[in-house]
């Protein structure tokens, strides 16, 4: 492996993050406000995604339930990607496209937030979860890339779309992780004050 190839990954990542900073800072702030308001009203945040996005959903929920960088009470968040029995039962008995929507239908309440993560914006099961969240009168915060894909057509005016300005999956996922950290930090700052 050439050192130059590795250095290029770092340069590309930095360039993507700087471009994302310009386009996403304001909508990320709005997403923080939305999530904090839901949590302050006794609601919860459900998160879903596939593959690396599933890991990001779990990471986000763990940071809220546990802690991000400061000690505080746990906050109600749930990754819909973690229960193997639910995932396999719904996939087997219904369809894989329903693995998240079925959970949103069972667990989501009006005022809850769905963090829907899909790098391409085209994941059928994430799109179905968004539709179900709307049926449950939930707010959706969509974390995408590659122009947003079909998510662009499914979001309501009250939803927030955080679309990373990149077509490379690795770069999109890197910014997704940074965005998740911004969301967690913002929620903590609103809860406990800025330090």
From TrEMBL:
Binding site for Zn(2+): 59, 63, 173, 181
Pfam families tied to this protein: SIS_2
Annotated SIS domain residues: 35-195
GO CC list: cytoplasm
One of the protein's GO biological processes: carbohydrate metabolic process
Cofactor(s) the record lists: Zn(2+)
Binding-site residues for substrate, renumbered to this chain: 50-52, 63, 92-93, 118-120, 123, 173
InterPro entries recorded: GmhA/DiaA, Phosphoheptose_Isoase, SIS_dom, SIS_dom_sf, SIS_GmhA/DiaA_subfam
Gene Ontology molecular function, alphabetical: carbohydrate derivative binding; D-sedoheptulose 7-phosphate isomerase activity; zinc ion binding
Subcellular location(s) per record: Cytoplasm
Record keywords: Carbohydrate metabolism, Cytoplasm, Isomerase, Metal-binding, Zinc
Comment on bound cofactor: Binds 1 zinc ion per subunit.
Listed pathway(s): Carbohydrate biosynthesis; D-glycero-D-manno-heptose 7-phosphate biosynthesis; D-glycero-alpha-D-manno-heptose 7-phosphate and D-glycero-beta-D-manno-heptose 7-phosphate from sedoheptulose 7-phosphate: step 1/1
Catalytic reaction list: 2 D-sedoheptulose 7-phosphate = D-glycero-alpha-D-manno-heptose 7-phosphate + D-glycero-beta-D-manno-heptose 7-phosphate
EC assignment: 5.3.1.28
Main localization of the protein described in the UniProt heading: cytoplasm
Family assignment from sequence similarity: Belongs to the SIS family. GmhA subfamily.
Subunit note: Homotetramer.
Function of the molecule: Catalyzes the isomerization of sedoheptulose 7-phosphate in D-glycero-D-manno-heptose 7-phosphate.
Other facts noted in the record for this chain: The reaction produces a racemic mixture of D-glycero-alpha-D-manno-heptose 7-phosphate and D-glycero-beta-D-manno-heptose 7-phosphate.
The protein's name: Phosphoheptose isomerase
Gene, per the UniProt record: gmhA
């Amino acid at each position: 492996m050439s050192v130059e190839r590795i250095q290029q990954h770092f340069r590309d990542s930095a360039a993507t993050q700087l471009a994302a900073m310009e386009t996403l800072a304001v909508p990320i702030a709005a997403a923080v406000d939305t999530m904090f308001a839901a949590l302050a009203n006794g609601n919860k945040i459900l998160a879903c995604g596939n593959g690396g996005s599933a890991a990001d959903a779990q990471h986000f929920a763990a940071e809220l339930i546990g802690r991000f960088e400061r000690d505080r009470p746990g906050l109600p968040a749930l990754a819909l990607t973690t229960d193997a029995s639910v995932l396999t039962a719904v996939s087997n008995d219904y369809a894989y496209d329903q693995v998240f929507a079925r959970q949103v239908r069972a667990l989501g309440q009006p005022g809850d937030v769905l963090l829907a993560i899909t790098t391409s914006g085209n994941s059928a099961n994430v799109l179905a979860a968004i539709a179900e969240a709307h049926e449950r009168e939930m707010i959706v915060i969509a974390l995408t890339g590659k122009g947003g894909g079909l998510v662009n057509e499914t979001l309501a005016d009250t939803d927030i779309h955080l679309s990373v300005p990149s077509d490379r999956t690795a770069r999109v996922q890197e910014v997704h992780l940074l965005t998740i950290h911004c969301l967690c930090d913002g929620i903590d700052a609103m809860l406990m004050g800025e330090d």
